[in-house]
Here is the input.
Amino acid sequence: MPSRPQIIALAAASTSSFRKSTILSIVSLPALLAAAPAFAASFDATSKIDAVTVYPDAASIIRHASIELPAGTHTLVFRGLPMNLDPASLRIEGESDGKLSIGSVESRVAPADNAQADSAIAEQLRKLRSDRDIKQTMIDTLGAKRDMINRYAQASPEKLGEDSAPLDIEKWNAAWDVVGSAMGKINEELRVARNDLRDLDDKIKAVENSTRAPDNRTRPLREVTVELEAGSALKGKMILTYRVNGASWRPLYDAQLTTDAKGGKATLDLVRRALISQRTGEDWKGVTLSVSTARVNRGTQAPDMQTQRLAFWEPPVVMSSRPSAPAPRATLNAPVQAEAVQQSADEARFRKKAEEVESNLDTGAFEAAFRVPGRIDIQGDGSQRSLRIASKSVAADVLIRATPALDQSAYLDVSFVNEDEAPLLPGEVALQRDGAFVGRGQFGLIAQGETTRLGFGIDDRVKVSRVPVRRRENEPTWLGSTKVETREFRTVVKNLHDFPIKVSVIDQIPISENSAIVIDQLPATTPPTDKIVEDRRGVMGWTFDLAPAASKEIKLAYRMKWPADRAVAFETVPNTPGQSKSMR
Here is the structure.
């Protein structure tokens, strides 16, 4: 017979007061188990979800259950737990006013109790049909009463008086008022009763339809059993912790920019929000909620890199008992093609892993958690709930930014440093400027201490224009075989504000990666303050202060040379990831 397992027992016990909770430790109790009763008493735990930590891809649940045990061995059963519970994440703790040991913990699937579900539906239908019969009886009674009033109203006046004498004419108005009032009251009561009857018919039909829908049948759930050993009669509390899938949160941000009417320093109020939804199979009611940036469903370690060998390609040997057709003649690039196919397959597999990392944008070991104040309810139907988790005011540097080669508008650009201990996770940002909603943007992953910027829309009081000044093409002659093209542009920025502003103008000249194509920046170009902007070759910037009602002119001129017998085309080089964390 196998030996009894080690169990978690109380290292110390206090019998004087329940306030002195005990500490759990792992010890071996063979003697205690041998002295325990042969049959354990089983009872259901009345538990309640007390706290929830939501991760971007899962949730951790903490349940509390109060217990009152006599001395002996007992089995505590937590019923109705969600099916997607991870059994490996189960943890049980406890405290009591007496000596209590925790033994084995088991997770099992409880079969669906459809008989109980059918019984509950039958009872619901019985009650609804009984209510309908009562309501129908009321309608019949009111109808009979109305018929009597109608017969009274249709009687001749000579039959309404005493001893069949005609009713005095001065009493006719009073009689009509009595009949009309009674008829109005009866009709109103009938209207209400018939509406109630229709509602009952709709409810009965809905319940009858639900019995035909398989999704509304009782689904199998999980049960967790815990073996307990009480040294004496005691009271205590058990804490069950587990992880479930089907829950997630994603960050949302509100960015409110407040500017100074005199052009002074601006303030940026940044509010973090968490958009939470869950379909774990249980409602969270009155729970303490936290959101964490840790991703608990990802891998726990980096993948292993395997040895790669380069060898000569050998054609595969086809084993067949039937005569085969002559093998196709191998081409010179067959090994390269086979290697390319294998490399393409490897890259496709590796690309999926890379996309997973990029889509998560997790910083690795860095983790932050936000605890939501108070207790809240979150339904398990997948509905989304937005909660405010943090806010902060930061000093913002305001800059008027323009890219006139693409858009001859001036944009209000605000940069700030993330001074929080937690990173700003990727998420949507709602942008407001001086109380007005100006649009939505997107944050990338912004680490602590990193500078980022937000765009807050067009500044109509800054005028930007860019016009071509000269474009000259020198066609090749008999004496030369080189084609030369010269281009020159002029950009003018004018400040229509009544205060000074800081402006940044971004422009570009093409680059060449071919020695046969030569591009020269001409002396007529206004010297840029930034020869390379955000590590983008050929992109340059001019940053300057502009006084009220003042204007600034910027010139850009360059010359391109290439062989006359070749055609050239402009190509846009995409930005590499991580070059810019700006948001437009």
Observations:
- The helical segments are 30-35, 114-153, 172-210, 334-360.
- Residues 1-39, 323-366, 577-584 have pLDDT under 50 and may be disordered.
- The two ends are 71 Å apart (CA to CA).
- Residues 354 and 560 are 39 Å apart (CA to CA).
